[in-house]
Batch of 3 targets.
Target 1
Amino acid sequence: MIGAIIVVYNPDLALAERLLTRVYNQTEHVVIVDNSPKAHDFSKVIEHYEYMHFPANLGIAAAHNHGLRYLLSIGCEYGLLLDQDSQITTDFVFRLSSLMMASKSLKQDIAAIGPSISCSFTNKTERSLIQREVFEYEELVGVTQIIASGMLIDLGFLDQIGFKDEKLFIDGVDHEWCWRARDMGLQIAKAKKIEMVHRLGDSRSKFIGVTYKVGSPIRLYYQFRNILLLSRRSYVPLYWKVRCLGLIPVRFFLNSTMQQNRLDRIRYMLYGLVDGLKGISGSYATNRR
């Protein structure tokens, strides 16, 4: 059985409902984990679903874990993670799960497979300039990490890998889980011919001809802090540590001079750096009460 976990937070209802309609027709079970302050009713678009509401916002890692534990409890073999603003085709789950089952029959030990990502801002397929490909086999390419949305997980490996790291709260959660799986000898793969439209960041800006992602001010706290937290871990790839640590001054400059809400951005970045150096994890709301 395949179950889907859709995490929502103050969602654009039109986008979320379109996604739910697509997912409902392709999976046996749908779990909606709602981190919004106000509850939402999706019964007008899908008939049967498990709804979990956490108005205090537990973060993406905890939301995934609640959904994954539920899927395990009802006997699902695979779990599909999706964000509220992702867009999938009518055969998305079938194609992705077919690749997973084929790889399992070949005993390839693939813990998760994700699609190629087309950014809704640029309408271009995202390609990493530095992430190395681990292997290539027909329609799959082995990679070091994939994003959470669109990730199909073989739930049988969760006992070995563990669940998502809730201490990170949001940024880096998907990559950390992939790195941990690879450190245990398992593989993470991307489907070369399956594409999913997804919104990466809140907007885009350009500086001296280079386009970069822009997120909300509070996300900077988690991004800066989690870079420092993850850089201490031995299984995190060296290229990621060098790249992210090296870009901290650049990102600090861009967010403190080139964006709106500059004072808020500076405050969140500084808090993130301080808490990261101190090894403080969890939610901003808890740490900065």
Target 2
Amino acid sequence: MKKYSLVILAALVVVAGSLRYLSSLARVTANVSGRELPIYSVETEEKKVALSFDAAWGNEDTQKILDILKKEKVHVTFFMTGGWVSEYPEDVKAIKAAGHDLGNHSETHKNMSQLSKEEQKEELMKVHEEVKELTGVEMELFRPPYGDYDDQVILTAKECGYYPIQWDVDSLDWKNYGTDSVIQTILEHKNLRNGSIILCHNGAKYTADALESVIRGLKEKGYEIVPISELIYRENYHMDPAGRQISDER
């Protein structure tokens, strides 16, 4: 009798766990009109924005960027490819030690929507395990290379434990138009508002030179700069058609 009671108890625990899981899913949706969306920005009354850097090539300015961020007392998010992690492991450790988010930018920077589900998982989890072994960090933020995604990419990322992240303010630093262009593009961007996610690249030619002015300009506008991990909602949210994450608890 005792044996059967334990079996029944175990079954109830499993069912209860499943119900909690299903209940959690019911409180979170990124599906809008049949499409799965990543997070482009966050609806918030707080005057906060997130600054992010994609690290897929080059490393000449990483330390300069870290020095400026430290000086300005700002924390950001770095999305790193597996190739970059392998080539610059000490910089990955330095980013983590400085208190910044470590984000996944895929293993080899391929167009994720052109890969099979299994290939997508491999692109995500290979660099995930590498960063975990190097720093102990279990990454949870994923930015698809080139901003390229479809429904399956978003679903695969979530299945691997990731929040898919895009941006609503593109610095265009990768076009190498110059320092002033980077500053003006960000500070005068039509989408810049509470909850914006700003895209930069650590390997772009003028980003490091523009960074201090960008940070001070954002602060002058009244914005607090936070890592993406501190900006997004983890549960009880839905998305609007523009990929803006909206809390259901307001």
Target 3
Amino acid sequence: MYIVLYSFSVKPNHEDSFIEGWKGLTNMIYQYEGSLGSRLHKKDEQEYVAYAQWPSKEKFESSGSNLPEEANRFRSLMKTSCEAIKIADKFEVIEDLLSTKLHD
């Protein structure tokens, strides 16, 4: 599995439109490009971090050409909501011990 770590500096009072754009684009990348999804985290008031999972580095690097025109609306929402969008890092997963279920 391959991970891409993103950093977002969101403009004040643009958090809702940023999240709408991030969710929409992430869902489309999952549906049309074969990603394994992504998680968004709030670091502080205007800083967000997301990591996207991909089946492989090759799948990530070859992505981008299968998205429909509608994806541009979500990209635009994100771009206009942010001061900066950066790929902070990329790396391979060695072990995965995350669980999606809660303990009793």
